[in-house]
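Need fresh eyes. Consider my entry:
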Amino acid sequence: MKVSIQNLGAVKQAEIEIKPLTVFVGENGTGKTWAAYSLAGILGKFGFLNFTGWYLVNGLRNPPRLPEIEQAVQKVIEEGNAQIDVVQFAENHAIECFNAIADYAPAWLPTFLSTPKGDFSKTQIRFSALDISDIARAVMGTTVSQGLSFGQDGQPKLSMSKESGDKRLFIITASADITSIIPKESIRANIVNTLFLMMQQAVFGNVTYLPIGRITMATEERMYPQISHEEVSADRIFTADVEASSILRHTLKLISTGRDEEVLNQEDRQDYVRLSQLLEEGVLRGGVSYKQSALNYWNLYYNFGGGRSLELRAASSMVKELALLVLYLRYLAQKNDVIVIDEPEMNLHPEAQARMTELLCMMVNAGLNVIVTTHSSYIVDHLANLLKAAKSSDKAGLAERFFLKDERAFIAQDKVSVYHFENGSAHSILDEDGYIDWKTFSDVTERLLRLADIVEDYQGVAV
C-alpha cells in the first residue's frame, strides 16, 4: 500500500509505502509521529467508525451513495430481505472508501493527535496500490453474525449474517413492515457499518498505540492500582482501537471475569503468547502479572526470579515501558493487527534495543503490522543485520550468533520499509540490496569523533 501525504504538521509532501514493518527515522520535529499515528488512525477502526457517520449524512463525492447499499436498503424495506456480494463490493469500492476516509480525517485529527488548535485544513492523504485481490480474499473469509433489536422483547428485528467462504452478506428482517419498527436510516447505518468494517478488517485489524507517554499510562494511580472488579465490569473488550491507555482495562477485564485462560489457550493466538513470554525472558528478564489484593483491587507486578516481585511502579523504566506490550501480546494481539510504537528504544540499554529489534521482526513474521518511529542507530543497524541474515542459506546456524537465538527474527526485505523524515518530506533509505543509509545518525557520530580530535589537539584547553 502506498500513501501520499501533504501538509500534515511538519510534512509538506511525502510518498510512503507501508509494509508489515515500517520504520520512520529523522530528527525531532520532522513529522514522524504524526505521520505514523495519522496513518494508523485512518486505516484502523477509529477512522472507519468516524467516517461511517459522515457517510450517512454526506455520502461520497461521486456517487454520493454507493448503489449496492441503497439497493439493499430498499429491498429490505420492500421484501424483508436482501443480499450483497461483499467480494464485488470490495473490488468496486475499496480504494474509493479508503480515500474517502482519508478525506474526512482532517475533521478528527485534531482530537486524535491531542492538538485541538492544530490546523489540518490543507492536509491531504491519498492511498494507492492497494492489493484488491488480497482484500477480496480476506473479505471472503470473514464471518458476520449480528442482530439489531428494538423494543423490550430483546429479539433481533434486523439480522445480518455471512459465513466464511461465502461472498454473500444476508440481511433479513423479522417484520413485514420493518420501517414501522426500525427507521430507514438505522437500516442503512447497520449495513454501512458492517460493510466498511469488513473492508477495514481485510486490510488491518485492531490498531494499538504505544506512545512516548506509556510510562505515565502504566503507572498512573487511576489506571490499575485501585481498579475494582465493579469498575471494570462495564468496559467492553476489543473495542474499536485498543489504545495504550486502555490496554490495562481490557486485559484486566479478561482476568477479573475469568476469561484469561480461554484467551491464552486460543489456538490462533499461540504465537503471540509465546512472543510475550520471549519479551519477558529475553528482554525484561522477568515476568509481568496481575495480582488481586484482599480488598479486591488489582495491581500489576514485575516478577524477577526467586519468588521476588515488585509493584510495577517500583520497577525499572525499561520494565514499565514494555509491560503494556507484554499484556498486548499475551491477551489482545490478533493476526493482521497494527501496533504503532513510538521510540521503542526509550530507557533501553543498547543490548536491550538489539533484542527488542529482533522481537519486533518476530512480531511481523507472526502476522502483525508494526510501525516504528526511532532515533536509535542500534535499532536501524541491527535491522540491517536481520535483513541480511534472511538471505543466509544456514539460518539455523546463524541464529545462534544473534541475541534471541531465533531465526524467526530474520526478516525478508519485501516486508520492510525505512523512511528518513527531513526538510518537510520523507524518502526511503532502504536500497534494493538491503543497505540502510542512516546518514541522520552517522553524521552526528562523525562530528563527535572530529570534536574529540579537535579537543585532543587543542592547545588552549586548561588542564
